[in-house]
Specification:
The protein is mostly helical. It contains 19 helices and 4 strands. Strands 1-2-4-3 form a 4-stranded mixed beta sheet, with helices on both faces.
Length: 488
């Protein structure tokens, strides 16, 4: 979910022409329908929570079955809410309605001339979606509280407020840094309009801020998630010894206190002296030291194979290239020319024209989503398997497979995809990862070929992006190119 939220925010940032409400819908009607979306999301979550909590209390022996059912309902709720929110943007014209409202009430000094967006507008566009999510989590709290207390008779679940704060931290940790960056940049250009007098200045400032943000991201996440250093002891000594053996330089091992809600691990930071390996409290409590070291090795593998740097280059270049390609496609396919041709045909009128405009507004969405799910998904799944191999060699293949199976069971992740492709577009399924590791253990000679295939994919992809960047560089003079890049 955190990555999909980041994808949604990227999509919101890519929209330059907010669609109008369709089918004659008024602005008031659009706002009412968006509010109805939030209410319907809350009512659905309430119904699911009430039903599953009642079933758990009545059949405590089926708690694990009901927990998996709850995970499936919650995942489907998010997917449907995600789709309805996109409909509110592209069909109900929610972004245009909000923009018109803010332009009527926002002082002129807070308007950015080159984009027409008040500072913070793109964050405000996401508010109905965010509010609907938080209200749904408030209802889902009852299910998780019931499940926890049925399995821990001597302990009480965390408070509702603490649970909501934990959910916000866990789900939005990827989105908060770019949001802060965007809002700061907009206020900077709004209050210092002279920075826009030079066409290259906004681009230079933006690139500098992006670079600084990526460098400082680990520290921001440390404070946002409330991360604390792993206390001294046998586990810390074991992980530090493993890091020395693997030649891995990092700043600290941090614990993410999730009140035992999640079992997860991650690595963050391109620079060794502000690079952290993060382990959640539940992962530390429920895995053996050997399994934790294997998970630690998986995160080390991401750094050793330069995955973090590759992801950074991938997203920075892809974000710009997709926008430029989309504008190029629109210049090749003029809607006005199509309109002139269409209205010369018999039995074709305004309804067909409205349909074409609607499909055009969806174009950037399809381009971004398709590119991300296919291209990044292909590369990400390969990188995850590469990191899995590194984790398996850190301790043993058996220890890493046991860690995978335990993390999946704790987090309610299906072992197989079970028809839901969204569960494994970024990571292979647990069954696929285990089968891959067992095949590599049986045939060690295949590992070298696999690593070579990942490197060739990365090199081919970077060459392709470099060629596209050079192509557009030759199309513009430097000041014009910087201005083009700035608008995205």
């Amino acid at each position: 979910m955190p990555f999909l939220l980041l994808l949604l925010f990227a999509l919101i940032c890519l929209i330059t022409d907010w669609p109008e409400p369709r089918a004659g819908l008024s602005e008031q009607g659009s706002a009412i329908l968006v509010g109805t979306m939030v209410l319907a999301s809350w009512l659905t979550a309430w119904l699911v929570a009430q039903t599953l909590s009642w079933q758990m209390n009545r059949h405590p022996d089926q708690r694990y079955v009901l927990i998996r059912r709850y995970a499936r309902w919650r995942r489907n709720h998010f997917i449907v809410l995600f789709g309805i929110y996109l409909i509110s943007i592209y069909l109900l014209g929610w972004g245009r309605v909000l923009l018109n409202f803010l332009h009527d009430w926002t002082p002129e000094i807070l308007t950015i001339e080159d984009r027409g967006d008040p500072p913070g507008f793109r964050v405000a566009v996401m508010l109905p979606f965010v509010v609907a999510l938080i209200l749904a989590w408030e209802r889902f709290y009852k299910v998780e509280k019931t499940a926890y207390e049925l399995g821990h008779a001597d302990d009480r679940f965390l408070s509702r407020w603490a649970y909501l704060v934990m959910q916000v931290r866990h789900q939005f940790y990827l989105v908060v840094p770019p949001i802060l960056l965007l809002v700061f940049q907009q206020f900077l250009f709004a209050f210092f309009p002279s920075l826009n007098e030079h066409g290259y200045m906004p681009a230079l400032i933006s690139l500098g801020m992006i670079g600084a943000a990526f460098m400082l991201l680990p520290m921001l996440l440390r404070y946002f998630l409330g991360l604390q250093p792993l206390p001294p002891g046998p586990l810390r000594d074991r992980l530090e010894g493993s890091a020395r053996r693997l030649g891995f330089n990092f700043s600290n091992v941090l614990v993410w206190h999730t009140r035992h809600l999640f079992a997860n691990a991650m690595v963050t930071g391109l620079i060794p002296w502000i690079r952290y390996v993060v382990l959640t409290d539940r992962l530390i409590d429920e895995l053996t030291p050997e399994e934790i070291e294997a998970v630690f090795g998986h995160e080390v593998g991401h750094v050793k194979h330069h995955h973090l740097l590759f992801y950074l280059v991938f997203f920075l270049t892809s974000f710009i290239i997709l926008s430029v390609v989309w504008d190029t496609l629109k210049s090749w396919i003029s809607l006005e020319e199509i309109k002139a041709a269409i209205f010369d045909l018999p039995y074709v009128g305004a309804d067909v024209w409205e349909l074409l405009k609607m499909l055009s507004s969806f174009g950037k969405l399809f381009l971004l989503a398709g590119y991300t799910l296919f291209c990044f998904g292909l590369v990400s799944r390969r990188c995850e398997r590469q990191a899995d191999l590194f984790g398996a060699t850190t301790v043993s293949t058996e220890a890493f497979i046991n860690a995978l199976e335990k993390v999946a069971a704790i987090n309610g992740i299906p072992r197989h995809r079970s028809g839901n492709w969204l569960l494994s577009w970024q990571h292979p399924t647990i069954a696929q990862r285990v089968e891959f590791l067992e095949r590599m253990r049986a045939r060690p000679d295949l590992s070298a070929n696999f690593h070579l295939s990942v490197q060739l994919i990365q090199i081919a992809f970077l060459y392709l992006l470099t060629a596209i960047v050079w192509y557009y560089t030759w199309q513009y003079e430097l000041p014009d190119l910087l201005r083009v890049l700035t608008q995205y």
